[in-house]
Amino acid sequence: MSDALPSGRPVPGPAARPPQEAGNAGDAAAAGAPEVFTPQERARGRALARAQWIPVLTARAVSTALLAVLGLTPAGARIVDAASAPFGDARPVRVLCGGLALLLLLDLARLPFAARLHVVRRDAGLDTRGWGGWSADLLRGLALSLPLALGALLGLHALLAAAPDTWWAWAAAAAALGVTAVSWLAPLLLEPVFNRFTPMEPGPLRDALLGLAAADGVRVREVLVADASRRTTALNAYVSGFGATRRIVVYDTLLATAPPREVELVVAHELGHVRHRDVARGTALAALGAAAGVCALAAALRPGPLLSAAGADGLADPRSTALLLLAVAVGGALAGPFGRAAGRRAEARADRHALGLTGDAAGFVAMQRRLSVANVSDVDPPRLLHLLFGTHPSAVRRIAAAMRGDSRPCCPPARARGGGAPAAGTAGGGAGDAGAGDGR
User: Fold this and answer.
1) Which pLDDT band holds residue 133 (cuts at 50, 70, 90)?
2) What pTM did the predictor assign?
3) More confident residue, 65 or 22
4) C-beta of residue 279 within 8 angstroms of C-beta of residue 157
5) Sign of the torsion angle spanned by Cα atoms 173, 175, 180, 181
6) 136: phi > 0 → left, psi -120 to 50 → alpha, else beta; which?
7) Most buried of the four, 167, 342, 382, 421, by CB within 10 Å?
8) Which residues pair with 238 in a beta bridge?
9) What is the CA angle 150-155-157, rounded to 5?
């Protein structure tokens, strides 16, 4: 791996960087680091981000406005009544039919913006699917999300009927358990729905990745290659599963375009998520948030003007479904920035782990540059949008930290924690900043 940027400028190592205040990490120049992206690359990433933000934010605004109309007026109650009328008046039937009608209506309202986002990403060369593939993935997503949402609605109404005074406590516990179950089972049950995986061919790279995991004290069962190129040109890798099912997954796009050392550095970052139990931390945070959200929902939707405006006799009335969906959407929007801030901290910690594990700041910079350019990322997004929606630190922050020598010793070997078994957890390659099209 050459210690030079594609422009030919040498990459200064950590020792060459003077100490910097952490607050300057977002500005490569302030951190004393040379510019690693050309003006054209910056402009292309910013242009794509802007083009994506328009449908993304508009879809959110339209769906929230629609929910407000349905949930704060009798319109939602009428849809529930009309959808369930042909099938009888039983409460479960009304919940399922009304909920399905409302959820499909929301998906239909978002559909034009999802299609526009597909066009934008395809024109940028990131999305390789035609309309047939895009539609198939859309239907797969609905087949997964609708049963989960309807099951949650049905369970909530069952609790409301069985325990009208204490339903909120049972629902809070059920929400926490549900979030935990989905988090741990998703890698095993959901990943195969969207990708096919094949074992990586034996060779130096596979040996290097397994050796990297062993050196980091992470037990890995196998190394798989995902056929991501069927959908995207974006580059990524992740560590998935837990215990005996844990495996390293590498996108075929990354294997086709990045040198082996950069693949190792991406995987080193993902191993950092495992060693720091980031999935367990994130799952616990999400479970607590879900439980707290149920309690807030119970407090906000007690019998009063909101339920009256929705045309419902009470929270147990299936006609309150639109109001429930509105409350969940608003709660998710309010909690989202806090969860994404925690995610950015976890990503920065995984970066430091990768640098400590490999000691290769120059390679890390080259890897970040390659991923950012290939994924057409906005490498330095507007601060407000980044704070609200950014799931990863910006590329300039990550590169500046690496050039500055912002690495720390890796956590102790797994055996030092007792028993020699690595912590159970998963580390998935999350999406990057919304609209940025990268995840690493």
Assistant:
1) very high
2) 0.82
3) 65
4) no
5) positive
6) alpha
7) 167
8) 249
9) 95
